[in-house]
Design goal:
The structure is a single chain. By secondary structure, the chain is an alpha+beta fold. The radius of gyration is 22 Å and the shape is globular. It contains 5 helices and 14 strands. The strands form 3 sheets. Strands 6-5-4-3-2-1-14 form a 7-stranded antiparallel beta sheet, with helices on one face. The chain has a 5-stranded antiparallel beta sheet with strand order 7-8-9-10-11, with helices on one face. It has one domain: Clam (outer membrane lipoprotein receptor (LolB), chain A). The longest helix is centred in the middle third of the chain and has 23 residues.
Length: 251
Amino acid sequence: MKLLSYLVVVLALVFACTPKEKTLGELNPAAPGFDSVNSDPAAIQLADSIMAAMGGRENWDKTRFISWNFFGRRDLTWDKHTGRVRIESPSDSSVYLVNINTGEGRVKLHGVELTEADTVKKLLERAKGIWINDSYWLTMPFKLKDSGVTLKYLGEDTLKNDRYNMLQLTFSNVGNTPENKYKLYVGIKDKMIKHWAYFNDAKKDTAMFIRPWDNYQKYGNVLLSADRSDNGGPKNVKVSESLPDKLFTEF
C-alpha cells in the first residue's frame, strides 16, 4: 500500500509539473483595443486558426524586414521592429523615410529633399497612409485581431464552385478608412484565406471587388501571398533578417 501511495503521489507531481499546451487563442493574443465584446467566438477561433496556418504569431513577431513592390507603382521596405519604412516612387522620383510609430522622417520629392516643416509633416503623414494601405494588401491575415477590429463569422458560402468559411472584418476609430468592410473567403480545411471582398462602406452589401489571395510562398518563417493570379497587389516580396541601417536614413 505504501508503494502504491508513493506512485500515486509521484504521478500527481509529474502531471502537475507538465506544462499545459497553449490554445490557439493563447498563442495569438489580441492587440489592445481589439473588439472582443462584439466579435463572436467562432470568428475569433477562425482568426486564430488563420494565424497558425500562416506560420504562427511567434514567427510573425520575429519577422523583421519585409520589402515588396505594390502594383508596380512603388517599392517599400519595412522594419517591423522599429517602425521605420522606406518608400520609393519612380513616377515622381520621391523617397519617403518615415517612422510610422513616431511620425518622424525625411522626404525627397522630384529628386530634391524638402525641409519646410509643415510640408514635410504633411508628406510624412501621406507616407504613413501609403504604408497602411500597401502593407494591408500583404499582411492582412496577421492583423485580424488588431486594435479597432470587430470580427463576425458569416457561416459558409460558395465562390467559383468552392465552399469557404466566411469571416467579416469591420473597424472602429482605426486607420484612415474605418468605414471600410472586408469579407474573407477562408479554406474550410486548410484555414487559409483564398479570396477577399472589399466594401468601401460597411453598410453596403455589394463589394467593390473580390480578388484572389493566393500563390502562398514561405518567406522566412511565415507564409505570404504575393504575385497573385490576378496580377494585382504585392510583388517581389522579400523577408530579411538584416538590412543596412542607411536604407532607412539616407536617400
